[in-house]
Structures are given as C-alpha cells and as structure tokens.
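Review form for a predicted model. The reviewer records the input and the model, then writes brief findings.
Reviewer: anonymous (R2)
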Amino acid sequence: MVRAAQLLQSALSGGPRACAGQFCRSCASTAHDGGMLASDGPGVPVAAGLVIPASELSWRFSRSSGPGGQGVNTADSRVELMWDAAGSSVLSPVQRERVLARLRGRLADGVLTIAASEHRAQARNRDAARDRLAAIVAEAVRPPAPPRRATKPTRGSKERRLQAKQRRTDVKKMRRRPTD
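Model under review:
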C-alpha cells in the first residue's frame, strides 16, 4: 500500500518512475529516465558523517537467473550498482587511500561494482546492493587497529600452561602398558 502511494506521488509529481527503464504497464513505455526509486533517498549512509550521494551511484539492470515465475524472462530484476571510489567527492584523501588500497582487488579503474540478484524483485535487489556497498565501504574506511603492545606472560598464565601440560602427560602415561 505504501509502495502504491509512493508510485502515485512520483507519477503525479513528474518525478522519476519506479519502473526504472524496464517496460511498465502503468505507463506502457520503456523510454524512462532510469531514475532512482522514491524509497532511494538522498544517498547511501556508510558511517558516521559519511554518506555516498545518489548522484555518485550508477545503476544497471539485467535479467536475473533463478526463480521468477511468469516474469522470469521479462523482468530486469538483477541489479548492478557502480560507485567511482577514485573520483568520489565525499571521501577525504586519507579515506580514499584506504579504500583504494583495501579494495584494490575489487576495483576496476577505481570503480566498485556490486551485483545483487538474490531476490525476485528489483527493489529488494537494489536495497541489497545498497546495503552491501555500505558494509564494504564502511569496512574499507575504518581506521587500522592500533599496533599490539608486546607483553610478557603473567606468572599465573605460565603456571596454568605448565599444569595443563602435566595433566596431559599424566593422561598419556596412564595409557601406556604397565611395567612390571
């Protein structure tokens, strides 16, 4: 019901269509702007104070394999979300270095691509891709852990280790053949 209200609001306001470039029965057209859904919001919140704006994201849709019933060969439910990490304006230089270094295996020319096709509905795949992008980027921009301070083992831990070794030795001695 809420989704229908959003679609009606979007259609009345002349805003982006919910069909996002695929054939739409409500307007009988495929010539849409491929814009964001009404539920897409201003961007992808990644971490405190870091939001990737919707203008930096680009979407591509294709047919997904797997379940889909009658619409399996007609609905473009597979979603690819692309974000140019190298050219992003929201990252500080330090964050950009971290992202490029930590995600170098996933980036193609500085662009991070995330595909989602686990759901039958395109909107749910969009949400899944958006959530995955947020998790990946949040992990990449996280500052490194402080270096470990070397410490000596305590006397108690040394004693516990030696007692455990002695118990193990006693168990193994009990398994031996008895000596006469």
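Findings: Residues 36-141 form a domain with the Double Stranded RNA Binding Domain fold (CATH 3.30.160.20).
Further findings: Confidence is low (pLDDT under 50) at residues 7-39.
Recommendation: see findings above.
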